[in-house]
Amino acid sequence: MTSAPESQTLSKPAPRFASIGSPYFGIMLACMAVVLILSNIGAAKGVVFGPIITDGGFFLFPLAYILGDVMSEIYGFKVARKAIITSFALSAFASLCYWIIIALPGFNDDYGNAKQAAIEGALGPVPQIVLASLLAFLAGQTINSLILVKMKARSGERTLWARLMGSSGVGEFVDTLIFCSIAASVIGITDFGSFVNYVLVGFVYKVGVQYILVPVTSLVIGWIKKREPSYWA
Fold this sequence. Notes:
The protein is mainly alpha-helical. The protein has nine helices and two strands.
């Protein structure tokens, strides 16, 4: 009885990931949290460019997904999941702070009343935006990270561009659909046509930005991999 060829009996090597002992992960985690908090504030404002409907956080949010891609590729799914949860805990804390700031008694003159109204208008809708972002980003980023890591387990260090594009497309669609469904009413989108516009524009824009920046993301990933001693250990 002949044995199976050696190439069939050997299993694929486990995908390579780094530990989080270096400062790079902490820097990326801090950037992700800041981007998320600022995009939640910006998302409270509806923005119109001709027929295009979006929100004020449109230019920031794709950066959070790019950071998620970098962390997933270098550190793995478990570490990326910790970054997602930590970012949202900080975002929820920021939302609590906004609520306290609004509730605190202010000066009762005309200037104080005007300032209170401005703060309520700017920060008041944020808790619902945070809820929308929490559910959407948690689902979308988790799916994005999981797909990227699963693809890496099959291809190893090869075809990084395919991992970045494939995972981002699915993750961003889930994220955009959930977020827009919850946040649309907060920024003043009430009819179905405007909602579809909001979802499609958000999805196409976010994925487009990430696809355009795939070469830059790949360079950043390569740069960090070379400087992460534990990645090649």
